[in-house]
Specification:
single chain; 232 residues; alpha/beta; Rossmann fold; five-stranded parallel sheet; four-stranded antiparallel sheet; 11 strands; 41% helix; elongated
Length: 232
C-alpha cells in the first residue's frame, strides 16, 4: 500500500487530509514539524510526502533540502498557503515534484499525487536486479524465468512468476492489490482485482509447504500481500 507522509502544523489539516487519503486507500503517517517528519521517514520511508512550507522551527524549504540529503529522491509535493509565484518557483527549483496552494480540492490533490507517483513508479516496484534473487532457500532467476526451493524446480505460469518476482524485488514490503495489478497484468488491465487473490492462492499452492498456513507469501489483512524476507 502506498505510504503518504503529511507534514503540517495544523492538526485539522493532518486529520482531515489523512482521513481523505485513507479513504482513497493510502497508508498515512503524519508529523507536525520537519524534524519529526525526517526522523519518521528514516524509520519508515514514505512513497510521497505532502509538505507545508510554513512549519515551526525548520520551514518546509529547508526541510526539502534535508529530505533530499537524508532520504534521497522521495517525491515531495508542497501543500501550502503561500500563493506567491516566487514561492512556487523557489519550491520547484529546490526539487519539489509539485506545488499546490491551500485551500485545495481534494480530488485535484489526489489526481496530482497519482501523476507524481506514476512518474516514480519504478521506486514502488524496483527494476529487476542483475542475477538471481535469493530469499532463504527460495531462488528466483528472471533471466531464465526459473524458481527453485531448496534446489528443486518449481513450475510456475508466466503470471505466477511475474507476481512472485514483483514481491521478491522488495521483500517485506506490503503491496496493495492496486499496486500489483499494473505490475503483473499491465497498466491497461480492466478486470476485477479478485484476479490477484486467485493467483496468490495458486502461487501458494506451489511454493508453500502448507498453503493454508503460508509462511512465504503473507496476507496483511486490509492492506495487501508481502513476501517474507529471510530476516523476518
Amino acid at each position: 500500500m502506498t505510504h503518504i507522509l503529511i507534514v503540517d502544523d495544523d492538526a485539522l489539516v493532518r486529520r482531515g487530509l489523512g482521513f481523505d487519503l485513507e479513504q482513497a486507500n493510502y497508508r498515512v503517517s503524519t508529523a507536525e514539524n520537519a524534524e519529526d517528519a525526517l526522523a519518521l521517514s528514516q524509520r519508515d520511508r514514505p512513497d510521497l510526502v505532502l509538505l507545508d512550507i510554513g512549519l515551526p522551527g525548520m520551514d518546509g524549504l529547508d526541510a526539502l533540502r534535508q529530505f533530499r540529503q537524508r532520504i534521497g529522491d522521495v517525491p515531495i509535493i508542497f501543500v501550502t498557503a503561500r500563493r506567491r509565484d516566487m514561492d512556487r518557483i523557489l519550491g520547484l527549483e529546490l526539487g519539489a515534484d509539485d506545488y499546490i496552494t491551500k485551500p485545495f480540492n481534494v480530488d485535484v490533490l489526489l489526481a496530482r499525487m497519482k501523476a507524481v507517483l506514476r512518474r516514480v513508479q519504478p521506486s514502488l516496484v524496483p527494476r529487476p536486479v542483475a542475477g538471481p534473487i535469493t530469499i532463504g532457500d527460495l531462488v528466483i532467476d528472471a533471466s531464465t524465468h526459473t524458481v527453485t526451493i531448496g534446489g528443486a524446480a518449481v513450475e510456475l505460469t508466466a503470471r505466477e512468476f511475474g507476481l512472485l518476482h514483483a514481491l521478491a524485488l522488495r521483500p517485506g514490503h506490503v503491496f496493495s492489490v492496486d499496486e500489483l495489478l499494473p505490475v503483473v497484468w499491465g497498466a491497461e488491465f480492466l478486470g476485477e482485482s479478485q484476479v490477484v487473490y486467485v493467483h496468490i492462492r495458486r502461487l501458494r499452492s506451489k511454493i508453500e509447504t502448507d498453503p493454508d498456513n503460508p509462511q512465504r507469501v503473507i496476507t496483511v489483512r486490509g492492506v495487501g500481500y508481502k513476501l517474507v524476507s529471510k530476516k523476518e
